[in-house]
Amino acid sequence: MKKTMGAFDHATLPKTGILLANLGTPDAPTAKALRPYLKQFLSDRRVVEIPRIIWWLILNLIILNLRPRKSAEKYAQIWTSEGSPLLANARKQTALLQGFLSQRIASPYAVELGMRYGNPSIASAIAKLQAQNCTRILVFPLYPQYAASSTASALDAVWDTLKQTRNVPAIRTIRNYHDHPAYIKALADSVREYWSINGKPEKLVMSFHGVPRYTLDKGDPYHCECHKTGRLLAEALGLSKDQYLIAFQSRFGKAEWLKPYLAATLEKLGKDQVKRVDVVCPGFSSDCLETLEEIAMEGKEIFQHNGGGEYHYIPALNSRESWIHAMYDIALDNLHGWVSTEWDAEHARQEGLKTALRAQALSESKADV
Ligand SMILES: C=CC1=C(C)c2cc3[nH]c(cc4nc(cc5[nH]c(cc1n2)c(C)c5CCC(=O)O)C(CCC(=O)O)=C4C)c(C)c3C=C
Ligand SMILES: [Fe+2]
Ligand SMILES: [Fe+2]
């Protein structure tokens, strides 16, 4: 009989898998590639919560006819020789974390990247981890602040995949790390480094991806977690309350989203003739369409069109060493009992396990089934 992915095998040692989960991106900056990506994204009930029939009509009759072309034009402006910045950055983070862990974790482990929408899918990442005999998986969403539309949606994709799996691994999930000291330090380091090269602004704007206002009313902690990250980053940078602002970007649709909107904030700062504004996006672990086009290009246009002075976008954490270090710290906080950092003890444990497995396989191969 054909064995399924991740099928039990007596003779192999179990590993711990780390599944880095991010949002995903289209395969190409074209309307043809944008259509299935947007269809998958915007059909997610965690992302759009309005009644299905009404939304089905709006999505299929209006949005999927107009948005793919418009979004493709935006993606074309930020696409690189390595493809989508979000995917290229997430791949680098995966490889760097894998390398970083190899110097610190003595137990067998594997790291894979899965995207909630598009490729490589979360299902393909889980299949790769299971093929490497990972019997335990830590799901690490690359969203520091929890939102149902990002974090919970990534977890939905994990459960949906596991529903179709016989030999389900043990699962742990990281809910958030908006106030983790290593994450805040990585953010503060990146801003300080930017300022040491480019000088300081009159105002620092911390811009987070928006979500509909009703999600806050229904109990989503995202708004509060963004504010806490903002406050901790300001404290780490020694900023007073009048030196920084928190705003929310990327409003989608007609409903009210979290306020203040970034566009209105930049418009006001421009009208107030602020001499220099820097914008940082602490919620995005990788640069992507939302930072490189909406913040670095559109934001600059809004600020300066309204009379503002210099405008700087401070890059996302991407593959900064302090961020890879923070990813390691956050992962390790959630891997207690699953991995060891003590090489000699772990080596002895692995040798013992191998011997026990060999003996067990031998005795079971002799036993009647
Ligand atoms: C913090 C992370 C994110 C949350 C929360 C989030 C919510 C959310 N997004 C949309 C609609 C769109 N977002 C789009 C792009 C996009 N969104 C995030 C992150 C979060 N979204 C990222 C990192 C990106 C960029 C992806 C890339 O390829 O670079 C898009 C697609 C682009 C476009 O057509 O504008 C849409 C659409 C909603 C409705 C929502 C919460 C309800
Ligand atoms: Fe989004
Ligand atoms: Fe956007």
Automatic annotation (TrEMBL):
Gene Ontology annotations of biological process type: heme biosynthetic process
Superkingdom of the source species: Bacteria
Major place of residence: cytoplasm
Keywords from the UniProt entry: Cytoplasm, Heme biosynthesis, Iron, Lyase, Metal-binding, Porphyrin biosynthesis
Functional pathway: Porphyrin-containing compound metabolism; protoheme biosynthesis; protoheme from protoporphyrin-IX: step 1/1
UniProt entry tagged with the keyword Transport: no
Binding site for Fe(2+): 209, 290
Compartments (UniProt record): Cytoplasm
Reactions this protein catalyses: heme b + 2 H(+) = protoporphyrin IX + Fe(2+); Fe-coproporphyrin III + 2 H(+) = coproporphyrin III + Fe(2+)
GO MF entry, a single one: metal ion binding
Keyword hit for Metal-binding: yes
EC number(s) recorded for this UniProt protein: 4.98.1.1
Entry coiled-coil feature ranges: none
One protein family per Pfam: Ferrochelatase
A cellular component term, taken from the record's GO annotations: cytoplasm
CDD domains attached to this UniProt entry: Ferrochelatase_C, Ferrochelatase_N
Family per record: Belongs to the ferrochelatase family.
PANTHER family in UniProt: FERROCHELATASE, FERROCHELATASE, MITOCHONDRIAL
Function recorded in the entry: Catalyzes the ferrous insertion into protoporphyrin IX.
Protein name as catalogued: Ferrochelatase
Species for this entry: Methylovorus glucosotrophus (strain SIP3-4)
Gene that this sequence comes from: hemH
